[in-house]
Structures are given as C-alpha cells and as structure tokens.
Design brief:
Shape: globular
Oligomer: single chain
Strand order of the largest sheet: 1-2
Helix content: 40-55%
Structural class: mainly alpha
Distance between the termini: 11 Å
Strand content: under 5%
Order of helices and strands: HHEEHHHH
Number of helices: 6
C-alpha cells in the first residue's frame, strides 16, 4: 500500500499548494493519496510506472471506454481524443483518473514544466486537490472529506474505501 516516492511527493505538494490557495479547504495529503491508491495504485496500474524523473506514468493510464456498459456511464468524446486517445467516447486518464472534460476544468501545471499533463502525478495530484476543494467544507473532517470524495466519484462504496485508506495513511 506504500506510495512510491514521486507519488508521495506529489500528494504532499498538493496539500501544501492547496493549503496556501484555499486555507478553508484543509486538504490532507492522505486523502489525495487514498484516491491515487484506489484509482491507479499510485500510477502503477496496467504496467505503468513513474519511469521518468518528472513523475509521468509510462506508457500512460487509460480507463475503460465510458460506453454505458457494465455499469459505466456513457460519455461521448469531449476532447477529440487528445487526452484519452479515443475520438468517439471518453475514458478517464492518468493516475488520478480524470475524465477529459474535468481535466479541462481543473487541470494545472503543478510542477512548472509548462505542460498540464494528467499522466504526470504532480499535475494530477494537485488537480485532484483542486477538484476536492471545489465545494464547501473542511476536508480534514470526516464529513467534509466524505462530501468531497463523493463529488470525485458518486459511489458510496468508493467513498467508504477512500476514507478507510486515507485513515490508514494518516496513521502511518
């Protein structure tokens, strides 16, 4: 369950940056880390690794097509296939699994390399923090964290799993 060093750095950086940008949010690094664990095992799913010094998942993390099958939502293409390599349907991308339209709204260049890249754990973790902090609430509280995670993914079982992992990370 341990985070690889590039991911841990990115989660802690997200906490630091959001702590300065939105003091009321109180985003804890462990909440971002728990989402990274659930979504992609910290960027290590599907044969991926942080194989570059910049923390970019290689060869790239691409979720299943959002085609309305097997309980998945149906989301037609929002990015002309630019991020998700499919010009017909969307799919989540990167270690934090952003839908391209969501990435367009919250994606940032957290590591100042002049690229907003959802495959880059630095950019993805801070962007996830922005998304989590987009609503009201103190994310250091159980209620605030649960509400924010529910915005990230509308599944109660997802929220429960993320909060359980987040609590474990907070305990060390």
């Amino acid at each position: 369950m341990a985070s690889p060093p590039p991911a841990l750095y990115a989660y802690r950086r997200a906490e630091s940056l959001l702590g300065k940008a939105d003091e009321a949010c109180k985003l804890p690094w462990n909440l971002v880390a728990a989402i990274g664990r659930v979504e992609s095992n910290h960027g290590r799913t599907g044969g991926n690794a942080h194989s570059t010094a910049d923390g970019t998942a290689k060869p790239g993390i691409y979720g299943p097509l959002l085609d309305g099958r097997d309980g998945r939502a149906k989301i037609t293409d929002t990015d002309n296939g630019t991020l998700d390599k499919n010009p017909v349907l969307d799919r989540a991308v990167g270690p934090m699994q952003f839908i391209p339209s969501t990435w367009e709204a919250v994606g940032v260049d957290s590591d100042n390399d002049d690229k907003k890249n959802p495959q880059d754990i630095d950019d993805a973790a801070t962007s996830a923090g922005i998304y989590l902090c987009a609503g009201e609430g103190d994310l250091s509280t159980p209620t605030g964290a649960a509400t924010a995670v529910k915005r990230y993914n509308h599944s109660d079982s997802y929220v429960d799993l993320v909060l359980k992992i987040s609590a474990a990370y907070a305990q060390g």
